[in-house]
Amino acid sequence: TDLSIPELRHPEKAHRKSNPIMRKPNWIRVKAPTSEGYRRTRDILRDNKLVTVCEEASCPNVGECWSKSHATFMIMGEICTRGCTFCNVATGKPSDLDPFEPGRVSHAVHKLGLNHVVVTSVDRDDLKDGGAEHFAMTIRSIRHKNPDTTVEILTPDFLRCEPSALEMVVDASPDIFNHNLETVPSLYPTVRPGARYFHSLQLLYRAKELSPKLFTKSGIMVGLGEEKNEVIQVMDDLRSANVDFITIGQYLQPTPKHHPIRKFVTPEEFKTYEKMAYGKGFLMVSASPLTRSSYHAEEDFVRLRQARNRQTQGLN
Predict the structure, then answer these.
(1) Could you give the CA distance from residue 56 to residue 74 in angstroms, rounded to a whole number?
(2) Fewer CB atoms inside 10 Å of the end CB: C or N, the chain?
């Protein structure tokens, strides 16, 4: 299958009506990637036959991040078993897991000289454990070769798995456990079919319960048709699940067959969301038009750790 052809990349969206893509406002313009650092990162990833969510999800920040040797590795293949209407990752029948992938990821982390690495994956509903063991092996492999590198993971929801799947991942001791809610509950049937809002919330709660010192993180996109009060409710739900860090970014429509953009949220509105989230007790908030889960992840992790230290000192 040629995944560069939209109809083959997203067969489940073929029946959907085309939605014209709105012109981006001037606050969302990004430069084309051209730097030497960008090319070096790209070459290391190609040499190690690795997939990144930066490319697969058409992230607008790829030029900036790769120029600094920052990349988010996407493990377990490039084909997802879900067909979320916001996402540009290909949907279909995935290949078998590659047992050498964890080693290749840790080698690339070493070559790139990363202080902080983000690892995500496609959904693998075809696997009994949802890919939990592969995730755990990747974390351990990174730690073995790069003992000083902090590890952030962005996981699927393990919806059809035993509770032991999440336990296996948390037992591998990542520094940050991230699972994105993606949108408000009322939009789940149209935006995130196949997922359940309260299951995702419970996953975040359980991760913290299993490892109280683990930093937990979640994010949503705005501009999908949500109401402001619904975003505030998501903040409250995440705080009740003891989530430390929230990211809020603008949804950008990958193709005409994807969910339409209902609104471009202004930088001022993002500032308001940021202020509200800090007011609700999040240790860390990233809210801006170009915010994505792993955007500025290394700097944010340093700030997150400092915020917890201040909080701990304040309690003593």
Answers:
(1) 9
(2) C
